[in-house]
Amino acid sequence: MAATARRTRLMGQGLCELVFPLRCASCDEELTELREDVRLCGVCQSQFLKNDTNRCARCAVPLRHASASELGCPQCRDEQLHFSQAWTLGDYAGELRTAALRMKRARDEGLSAAIGQLLWSRHGQAMADWRPTLVLPVPMHWLRRSLRGTNSAATLAETLAWRLGQPLGARLIVRRRYTQPQSGLSPAERLANVRGAFRLRKKHRLAGASVLLVDDILTTGATCNEIARLLRRAGAARVALSVAARTDDRDRR
Ligand SMILES: [Zn+2]
Ligand SMILES: [Zn+2]
């Protein structure tokens, strides 16, 4: 959906809220107060933050009993990652997984925005301290986007860019191939699937930039890592990730 149309719809929602009570974007429960500007009730917020445990600052997997340093955790230490930092609300499981799946539907764009607000309320300070100068969503191929009518990564990025007061580079990265969804592919297949799938426009805007790359779900990180590689090659000083949910695929290996 065109950005203008979406904005008009969101403004429409704003008008409705003047007349009708504010409701939780996930369970539709009436909200008596808006805690930290997050349009989610307390129950949904705590469900989404249920896996908010100690995580590797570099790749965001839960550390369980492992230890991590700036160089990463046992899972990512030997990987060549082109991003240095990752934030997430929690594991891609339970209610957060259900929400991430709902966020793929155009009618649940309000839920994407609310999850973005929750991500900000949980990690906003750390993200701001990292000092991003540009916020970029992981792009969706135009065909998939027009079939779905939404890209939750773009809505999350819009919310974070607005809170950070930094520009949103909505069309700076182009997905030029219609890739298969990453789910169900092995790590090697995922890597092959995304190689050469993206291209950057207006590379000059990236010189020296600190880029916050935003996506809904982070799995092996192959997609984000490929984009981060392009961004760094085009002159970005550093790249960090902000994602709604993170899979922990150690158990499946
Ligand atoms: Zn709720
Ligand atoms: Zn790690």
Can you tell me about this structure?
This protein has eight helices and six strands. It is of the alpha/beta class and 253 residues long. It is globular. The relative contact order is 0.15. 38% of the residues lie in helices and 14% in strands. Strands 1-6-5-2 form a four-stranded parallel β-sheet. Strands 3-4 form a two-stranded antiparallel sheet. It has one domain (22-59, 80-252): 3-Layer(aba) Sandwich (Rossmann fold), CATH 3.40.50.2020. Helix 8 (222-233) links the parallel strand 5 and strand 6 (238-246). The structure holds zinc ion (2 copies). Residues 24, 26-27, 29, 40-41, 43-44 line the site of one zinc ion.
* Order of helix and strand elements from N to C terminus: HHEHHEHHEHEEHE
Report how far apart the termini are: 38 Å
Q: How many strands, what sense, and barrel or not for the largest sheet?
A: 4 strands, parallel
CATH architecture annotation name: 3-Layer(aba) Sandwich
Strand content: 5-15%
Structural class: alpha/beta
